[in-house]
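Q: Now give one record:
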Amino acid sequence: MAISVLRQTLEIEELVGSRQGQALLRAEAIVPGAGRDAIETLMSEANLVIGQVDVQEGRVVLEGTAHCQAVYRQGGEATLRSLTAQAQLNHAFELPGAARDMPCRVAGEVEHVEAKYENGHMVFLVSVGLKLQLWRLTPAEIVTGIEGVESLETETETIRSVRLAAEAGVETLVSETIALPAALDARTALMDWATVTVEGVGADLGGVLVRGKVNVEALIGSGVTGRPVALIKVPLSFERLVEMPDWLCENVYATARINRLDTRVEESEEDEDAEMRIEAEVAISVKAIAASEAEALADAYTTRGPSLNVQTQTLTPCVSIERAQASEAFHGTLLLPENAPGAGTVLAVRVRPVVGGWGVDAGRTTIDGVLEATVLYMPGGSDRVASAQSEMPFSVSVQGELDDSSWVTVEAASAEANALMSDRLELRCVLDVGAETRVTRAYRLLSDAEEGEDVKKRPGIVLFWPGEEDDVWSIGKRYNVSVEDVRAMNGGTDVIRQGRALVLKI
């Protein structure tokens, strides 16, 4: 009977490559009525939205838009003004092995924004950090059995493969109108920003229900003497069904980002509350994960008759996806620049964390980075708003061991500050950390087998001294003895003792 090798196809997710980089974007906007007045920029902000990811042969091209904002003072005015501008992102990463239709994960974060006045224009210089991971799904053949061979000994291993099974995305519009107290005398929305938190993901009729919160912060221009701006914080909840087949909804996770944020103030009549209208466009992405297992032959040999000539292969699938989340309070001291007005009342705080790297120790990972902070405040005895910027190092830790391919995000929430002394401020916020690591494992498996020459062995007794790598399988294969017989001659156990001879009857 001819030898027959039984095979099975298993889909494996492999990392093609990852890239990180930076891009410097520039945007301009005309400053209305600037003339010869001095323009002082007090706060600047930007939000990057990546709109298109084009995976090409050997490269990945990213396109997006940075929405820039600035709050400034003109001449000797006590009131503040604002303007906006847009900068376009077009960045290519060279990535050998990239091919169309490969799953690609992308993130873009604003790391630094600088706005300065030049010849009637406000010029924005925006530094953005970009990162991506590119994956491919590869059908791999594994050997599950061999037929047509007598006296066959086989060693099997359960191979596990975890992979992306499906992905779906939707956009949802979250809106709300809130009343602003008449005492605030709200005039206009100067600047806004927001963070998104996914709070729940679960299977529902027709797909996956995603629940979350958009934490909006809006800087409002006020007519109150001695307090020209106020920071309004509004949490907005959202709940959206993302359509997906029922059989894919068991193992899912979701991410969300802000595509557009718009805040507007409608001034009130005298002694009546003003209204602030908020609209946030949230992009939600849901990924379904599938896991497969199969029994594969790792090795095989015969104890008599025709021998086997075997070939092997190494497969390295993703075997699990480990996620970690943590929140830690941050406390730091922001020193005011030399000759800056002394600190009085803090009006608004904007912080932006930038991850630098991480290190692993005793099952935990410490993530380090820099927190870029901007504070608007009223100096003591003055009615002119001042601002201060600083970079402060931060360190947070999460359970688990991250590696070079881990996907890490850090966001700041609930930022506040107060004056400690005239030349320094105490800054507090909460750093929310999310980390995802794809764990891979290398399997050495049998890939093919052919008949060889007849097994030749001379009957007798062998005194065998085991080495460090020896086990009942390797000993049996070396002498063409069944694993069961080796186990019996080893006292009925699989444990091979080093330094103790094993008597084998061939």
Q: What stands out?
A: The mean pLDDT is 92. The CA atoms of residues 205 and 255 lie 20 Å apart. The longest strand covers residues 152-180.
